[in-house]
Amino acid sequence: MVSDPRSLTVLGIESSCDETAAAVVRDGREVLSSVIVSQVEAHAVYGGVVPEIAGRSHLEAIGPTVERALAEAGLTEDELSGLAVTTRPGLVGSLLVGASYAKGLAYSRGLPLVGVHHIEAHVYAAAMDLDEPPWPCLALVVSGGHTALYRADSPLSLTLLAATLDDAAGEAFDKVAWMLGTSYPGGPSISRLAAAGDPSAIRFPRHRPKQGGVGFSFSGLKTAVLYHLRGGDALAPTPAPEDIPARADVAASFEQAVVDSLVDNTLRAAEAEGLERILVAGGVAANARLRLELCQRAAESNQRAFFPPPEHCTDNAVMIAGLGHHLLAADRLAGLELDVRPN
Ligand code: KG4
Ligand code: ZN
Question: Tens digits of per-residue pLDDT, 131-162?
């Protein structure tokens, strides 16, 4: 049993994908430190995350990252109430680095340990700064690996309503960035290019779920961008980025198609579930057009959308320590048999 659930200082560790992160959070809200070591440069030449490079990079970074998070919080391991580590979903080799490190630390210091679900933690990031608890609410999780809608009745109870049939929205940004020759990760670089373009220049397709239901699919959109670049001829070669005419219009029209699909489905799902509050989480939640359009259109239908600050949209350990607080307080402790689940 955790000593006093009202005052918990939790060290969170995140290593599910391509960021090694550690953070210390008090009482699930007060951020004492947050350190993120990004591997973006190591993966950029490949246009996406290479699992083997990710695992090796985590192994190098994990010790110094945790030490820095503790030093910046001005605490030693013995002043912590517990440890929280991402155990699912993610790349198996990457998850194992964080989980093994956390187990070693928990064992050597006699600290309670909890395993955190990465998606639940992303949703928690959108809720942790709010003055009032938002539950029950709708949650849109939109990242490089996930695009899904959940009903969230509490920080620890999410029910899946719909998920993408194929690519995640962030993955589509990354792939289209590769085609247009902008840098990895694709979200921010496409948005920068799109700022100079006309979002209505090209009418790219939007996936329509059957019978007015909710759902996502981004693979057809990605193919439509490719065919557009080939001048409508599927067999033609893809032009080099510098030879693409009106590149900014392509970026802006693609971004608009993604945003329209996310906004339409999210508002429809919120209405169908009778929910007025919407939390948006994951890397793509940093997208300025999505933030603006979802907030505006939600307000028109008496709904409200909440986004985490941009630094808490992409992977971080604040969200892991924050949700870890609730798991510790609920006494949902893991033993040293704690395992990772990639899917
Ligand atoms: O949540 P995250 O850091 O990692 C995963 O769990 O996947 O999300 C990374 C994804 C990448 O695909 C990246 O292109 C996308 O989030 N992303 C964005 C923006 N910033 C990051 N997509 C659109 N607009 C952005 N500003
Ligand atoms: Zn993530």
Answer: 999 999 999 999 999 999 999 999 999 999 99
- Of all protein residues, the one whose alpha carbon is nearest to atom 7 of ligand 1 is 144
Give the mutation target among 43, 173, 221 for probing the ligand 1 site: most ligand atoms within 8 A of CB: 173
Copy the structure tokens of residue 9. Answer: 């200082």
CA of 125 to the centre of ligand 2 (A): 11
Q: Is the CB of 314 under 6 A from ligand 1?
A: yes
**How confident is the model at residue 5, as a pLDDT?**
57
Nearest ligand 1 atom, CA 255:
23
**Beta carbons of 58 and 20 less than 8 angstroms apart:** yes
Parallel, antiparallel, or unpaired: how do β-strands 82-88 and 30-38 relate?
A: unpaired
The answer to whether the beta carbons of residues 90 and 59 sit under 8 Å apart is no
Nearest-ligand number for the alpha carbon of 146: 1
As given in the structure block, the two tokens for residue 190 are 């496409």
29-64 as b/e: b if 16+ CB within 10 A:
eebbbbbbbbbeeebeeebbbbbeebbbbbbebbee
Distance between CA 89 and CA 143 in Å, rounded?
13
Determine the distance separating the centroid of ligand 1 and the alpha carbon of 173, expressed in angstroms. 8
Ligand 2 midpoint to CA 234 (Å): 33
